[in-house]
């Protein structure tokens, strides 16, 4: 049976927004964005994440070079890679593609592609302190996390803590608020997701260089 081709609304990130992101990455190495995308898109991605988490998400880290038991001490979330098969996934990937091109134009970062997965942290789930990339040992350059939780309250836990180097106290505490996004240099900022006290949904993604080096720290597709 021939599938109908979904009609994708074109999302356009403003040049001003991409300027701001490029500027922050250049000077600080990270940026936190509130109201990143049109709300309808956040809502559709949120609904899709909730729906698919019940049927298709897998414990994070299943894939090559992963030791599941070791992995479970480090992270307990479940994930599903985006493949652009729905209108909202395609719209999200298009937005991130626009950002990739815009950042390359401004910062000559050589970002080659983008991969991302939905994540679900159920009550009690966490992701211990880690780096998404070690210098020279990964092709992940820039990490992005887009959050899909409305009505997130202060004592729901589940914040992302972003650290500067080996510092014990965080540089930034990021609540996983609906339609907000954090972008940071993958090999610069150790970070962790503290234990979530309720269901927490997000899309974690990485802009990558075009090389074949293995990623030793995080599951790759
Ligand atoms: O969900 C978050 O806030 C961060 C997730 C994360 O660090 C990762 O998937 O590598
Ligand atoms: Fe991470």
TrEMBL record:
Residues 107-209 form the Fe2OG dioxygenase domain. It holds the Pfam family 2OG-FeII_Oxy_3. InterPro entries: HIF_prolyl_hydroxylases, Oxoglu/Fe-dep_dioxygenase_dom, Pro_4_hyd_alph, Pro_4_hyd_alph_FE2OG_OXY. One of its GO terms (molecular function) is L-ascorbic acid binding. It comes from the Bacteria. Keywords: Dioxygenase, Iron, Metal-binding, Oxidoreductase, Vitamin C. Its cofactor is L-ascorbate. One of its GO terms (biological process) is cellular response to hypoxia. This is SM-20-related protein.
